[in-house]
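Let us practice reading a record.
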Amino acid sequence: MKTTTELIDDLLTLAFAEDVGDGDHTTLSTIPENAIGKQQLIIKEKGILAGVEIAKRVFERFDPELEMTVYLNDGAHVNPGDIAFVVKGRIRSLLQTERVMLNIMQRMSGVATMTALYQDRLSGLKTKVLDTRKTTPGMRLLEKEAVKIGGGMNHRIGLFDMILIKDNHIDFAGGIPHAVESARNYLKSKGKNLKIEVEVRNTIEIEQAIAAGADRIMLDNFTPERTREAVKLINGQAEVESSGGITIETLRDYAECGVDYISVGALTHSVKGLDMSFKACQ
């Protein structure tokens, strides 16, 4: 399995390959090879900044001689007109890294900003907002990092770091008791120590998940009223997660039922990038 560093390197390799191709012919034909200049990242919209550390890797990967001076770090609350950083070096390198860096930073900052809006709705409550696997292909690690920068928590990164027994698994496996038992036997045989979460659809399945010793129970498409009843039934015997169609308007209603987590696909699957630009400066 590839490491986080290797996966991000692969992403940057692909990003440059699809953008630069066999050369930025506009830049190569108009800018002298040794010309030196500076560009600054200007914020154009209020939000949460994310992606500064990845931007460093973008510049270093393309041209290690680029010099980046950072004024605002990941997690900073930004406003229009703020300068996040300035980069000095070969103008050709600045122009060829501009779009890759902006695509990543705008996307990550949009995710962080959205996450902060959701988590702020839960002020004073124990409930934490979780992301999902509904991410942009290839950018999952960056989007999930942005969720953390925005104050949320990661659910699982992929299919490899948690057992999540969903409705289809349950139906194909012959029910919750058998599915959980099979998962435990599998983990033991592989020498793995992963949490087991079970998605439930009704009271009977909640009781089965409790009896099977699930670490976390996911209440799928429950109403707030049913959620409150489920939390009372579970009574601290497992962590409780709400999921399915929960919006920012209904988020606090579910949290006030006493759930530990609320997973929200919208944090990553329908986010608007934060507006910013990378402009030449003196």
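A brief commentary: The radius of gyration is 23 Å.
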